[in-house]
């Protein structure tokens, strides 16, 4: 009787071991098909076994990670291709213009007045080229993991006043008045003053390109944040513009040949994030509101 009992146990164990071995072969076969790109199906098992279920679960998790990595890799490659195409196009436009005017200057039929006009145009296009190269260089630096900021405590109000004063001539030429509203005096924040100045300059430069009316600039505190808001009224922006405004190389009017690289607001957002802050845009009816938010809690920067 005992012999029969042990015999049955042995048979059950052998059957179970055979089932385990069969299931392992099944998992191996599924992995082989997946690795050979013959299927995108995840691993499934037929045998109810906790250890095998955990193995399949972990394998499927790894598959998810690999797929996510591959998707991100493809996105980066596509972004790189688009970046190269955009950079090439933006550099080619002023460069082609410069070469064209140089060729015309070589002509013996060009009078002095035309020569001066061509030279002025070449200088203008060269300045445009310089701005483009500066933007591309700044972008390449910011996106380096080794790029560090010099974070120190500074007076936010004074920085904003100085930047706005530096744009006085630009505001005057565009017949735009910056209305400044200060709800809190002497707001002290931990920032890289050069980086933050670049952020505000990029926002104002963007406003000067497209704004059709006066601009309101509000400086205030909201709980643990310092806020600088820029409000442009009666814009012709839409939800698509708002969604893409801080993307690399985004331009509202891609057909218009202006001084925009489509990098200014992208650089602004990157710098704000590196300062433990953020920048965003919202549309209220047709009014554009760009908000720069800085964390007044300096503990994170102090540790860094």
TrEMBL record:
- Class of enzymatic activity (EC top level): transferase
Q: Which InterPro entries match?
A: HATPase_C_sf, HATPase_dom, His_kinase_dom, HisK_dim/P_dom, HisK_dim/P_sf, HssS/ArlS-like
- The record's principal subcellular location, in a coarse class, is membrane
Topology term for the membrane: Multi-pass membrane protein
> Could you tell me the EC number(s) of this protein?
2.7.13.3
Q: Does the keyword Glycoprotein apply?
A: no
Q: Which UniProt keywords apply?
A: Kinase, Membrane, Phosphoprotein, Transferase, Transmembrane, Transmembrane helix, Two-component regulatory system
User: Which GO molecular-function terms appear in the entry?
Assistant: phosphorelay sensor kinase activity
What is the protein's given name?
Answer: histidine kinase
Q: Which GO terms describe its cellular component?
A: plasma membrane
Q: Taking every annotated instance into account, which residue ranges of this chain make up the domain Histidine kinase? A: 86-280
Q: Where in the cell is it found?
A: Membrane
Q: Which residues form a coiled coil?
A: none
Catalysed reactions, semicolon-separated:
ATP + protein L-histidine = ADP + protein N-phospho-L-histidine
Q: Which organism is it from?
A: Romboutsia hominis
Which PANTHER family does the record match to this protein? HISTIDINE KINASE (PTHR45528:SF8), SENSOR HISTIDINE KINASE CPXA (PTHR45528)
Membrane-crossing ranges are none
């Amino acid at each position: 009787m005992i012999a029969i009992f042990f015999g049955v146990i042995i048979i059950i164990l052998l059957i179970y071991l055979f089932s385990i071995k069969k299931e392992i072969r099944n998992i191996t076969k599924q992995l082989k098909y997946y690795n050979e790109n013959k299927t995108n199906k995840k691993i499934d098992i037929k045998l109810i076994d906790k250890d095998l279920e955990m193995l399949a679960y972990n394998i499927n998790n790894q598959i998810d990670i690999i797929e996510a990595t591959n998707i991100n890799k493809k996105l980066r490659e596509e972004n790189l291709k688009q970046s190269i195409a955009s950079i090439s196009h933006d550099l080619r436009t002023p460069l082609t213009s410069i070469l064209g005017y140089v060729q015309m200057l070589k002509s013996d039929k060009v009078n002095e007045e035309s020569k001066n006009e061509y030279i002025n145009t070449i200088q203008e296009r060269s300045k445009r080229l310089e701005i483009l190269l500066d933007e591309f260089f700044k972008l390449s630096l910011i996106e380096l993991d080794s790029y560090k900021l010099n974070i120190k405590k500074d007076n936010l109000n004074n920085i904003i006043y100085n930047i706005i004063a530096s744009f006085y001539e630009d505001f005057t030429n565009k017949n735009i008045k910056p209305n400044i509203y200060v709800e809190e005096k002497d707001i002290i924040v931990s920032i890289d003053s050069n980086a933050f100045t670049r952020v505000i300059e990029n926002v104002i430069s963007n406003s000067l390109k497209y704004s059709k009316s006066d601009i309101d600039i509000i400086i205030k505190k909201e709980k643990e944040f310092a806020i600088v808001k820029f409000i442009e009224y009666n814009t012709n922006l839409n939800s698509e513009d708002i969604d893409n405004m801080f993307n690399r190389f985004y331009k509202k009017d891609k057909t218009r040949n202006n001084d925009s690289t489509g990098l200014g607001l992208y650089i602004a957002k990157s710098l704000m994030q590196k300062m433990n802050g953020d920048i965003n845009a919202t549309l209220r009816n047709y009014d554009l509101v760009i908000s720069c938010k800085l964390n007044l809690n300096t503990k994170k920067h102090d540790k860094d």
